[in-house]
Amino acid sequence: MRIATIQALDQADPLSAKREAFVLPEGLVYLDGNSLGMLPRIVQSRVEQVVKQQWGHDLIRSWNLHGWVDLPVKVGAKIARLIGAEPDEVVAADSTSVNLFKVLLAALRLRPERRVIVSDVDNFPTDLYIAQGVSALLGGYELRLVKKDEIEEALDHQTAVLMLTEVDYRTGYRYDMGRLTRMAHERGALALWDLAHSAGAFPVYLNQHGVDFAVGCGYKYLNGGPGAPAFLFVARRHQEAAFPFLSGWMGHKAPFAFIPEYVAAEGIRRLTVGTPSVLSMSALDAALEVFVDVDLEALREKSLRLTDLFIELMEPLAARYGFELVTPREHAQRGSQVAYRHQEGYAVMQALISQGVIGDFRAPDIVRFGFTPLYLRFMDVWEAVQRLEHVMRQDLWKDPRFQQRAKVT
Ligand SMILES: Cc1ncc(COP(=O)(O)O)c(C=O)c1O
User: Which pLDDT value is given to residue 33?
Assistant: First the structure.
């Protein structure tokens, strides 16, 4: 494809102005929004204001004065639009892992006569670890882990919960949420989705698909910052019966009544536990402002065009240097990332990062590139492929310093 054609794509991009909403390090092509989104400018000023004015000056009064106490539900309501939920069905809190623990326990309690949790053996490990912990806690549960094409078969009348991540963190494969949720329901099971690689990357339609529970991350495509609070969704029809096993005071009906008995709050708030992390929550709240006027269908359209372009430009390199595409070419089956298998994936990614293109590596052999439609240009995609070509042609990845594995890969 000619450069002029790619430049024309940028000129016609309805989301191009959004790029200015982010802090953009000079010369960097950032293809890692699926691990940590870039810093929105508005977050800088908001965090400064929260630290200086709210914490520094207004101190304890800020819980009421600046609405700190309501941040989890306020932020949850903002996320709701992005995932096809009602504002009172989502709350921001804790980490994705902790939220999964909470909603998985709540879901299992709604199907007490059933003893099977079905999931994908390639699901993100924390999801599987949490399910193992929950099973050990309750005793007598089977965690049935199968390959993607065996899910349908694995669902039966013993299944309590189907627990899946919509977009596979390694391959970028996107499940058909509507079909699988329907299938789970047909067998009397509940559907619980992890939206870590979905929320903020493309529109999700939880209620349209009748999803029961969901969780997701704040630090990836939502750009909430390192360690940002995560979120959870409970469909309104389940909220009254969703038992909050992590029954902390913030989920109490009257936290400041200080009574000894736990009485769950009405609605989604019951799934909050302790004091919210106000600084991180404020950063996420500000980051979500960037999405307010974003047309989510346009976001999806651009995401597909970016990933299509990358796959196309990578074709000659893939053939020449042994990159095996593991992301589906079919749009309906693709999230907002593209991944390749490569024998020397770790070293190749480190060498590429040294050339100013940040993607990431997932063991055992996946190089992964996340495409955030809010701040990426089509020319960035072209630039990334040029630099990767340079890394391969010059054998830069063979440098021993690129072989050494850091603690975080
Ligand atoms: C699918 C998925 N779920 C959960 C997590 C981690 O969640 P947390 O660290 O917020 O508990 C990740 C992190 O990358 C993920 O990809």
Answer: 86
pLDDT at position 405 is 83
235 and 170 part of one domain: yes
Ligand 1 in contact with 127 (CB < 6 A)? Answer: yes
Mean pLDDT of 223-242: 98
CB atoms under 10 Å from CB of 271, counted, come to: 30
Whether the CB of 198 sits within 6 Å of ligand 1: no
Residues 319 and 273 in one domain: no
Within a domain: 36: no
Q: How far is the CA of 278 from the centre of ligand 1 (A)?
A: 21
- Which candidate, 152, 174, 170, 147, places its Cα nearest to that of 162? 152
Tell me if 99 CB under 6 Å of ligand 1.
Answer: no
Is residue 35 a part of any domain in this protein?
no
CA of residue 124 to ligand 1 center, whole Å: 7
Instruction: Give yes or no: 375 in active site.
Output: no
Candidate of 124, 337, 366, 409 to mutate for ligand 1, largest count of ligand atoms within 8 Å of Cβ: 124
- Cα of 167 vs centre of ligand 1, distance in Å, is 12
Q: Are 282 and 369 contained in the same domain?
A: no
Residues 120, 241 within the same domain: yes
CB distance 7 to ligand 1 below 6 Å:
no
Residues 391 and 276 in one domain: no
Residue 409 has pLDDT above 80, yes or no: no
Yes or no: say if 118 and 154 are a contact pair by the CB < 8 Å rule: yes
Per-residue model confidence as pLDDT tens digits over 96-139:
999 999 999 999 999 999 999 999 999 999 999 999 999 999 99
Has 124 been annotated as catalytic?
yes
Q: Read off the pLDDT band of 404 (50, 70, 90).
A: confident
At residue 331, the pLDDT reads 98
Q: What percent of the chain has pLDDT over 90?
A: 97
Please state whether the predicted TM-score (pTM) of the whole model is above 0.90: yes
CB 126 near ligand 1, within 6 Å: yes
| 217 CA to centre of own chain | 4
Q: What is the mean pLDDT of the chain?
A: 97
Q: Specify if 408 maps to a domain.
A: no
Domain count, the chain: 2
Residue of 368, 369, 377, 402 marked catalytic: 368
Q: Is residue 128 a part of any domain in this protein?
A: yes
**154/238 same-domain check:** yes
Residue 315, domain extent: 3-30+295-402
DSSP 43-112: HHHHHHHIIIIIIIIIGGGHHHHT-GGGHHHHHHHHHHHHHT--GGGEEEES-HHHHHHHHHHHHHHTST
Which tokens in the block code for residue 391? 């890394």
Same domain, 328 and 190: no
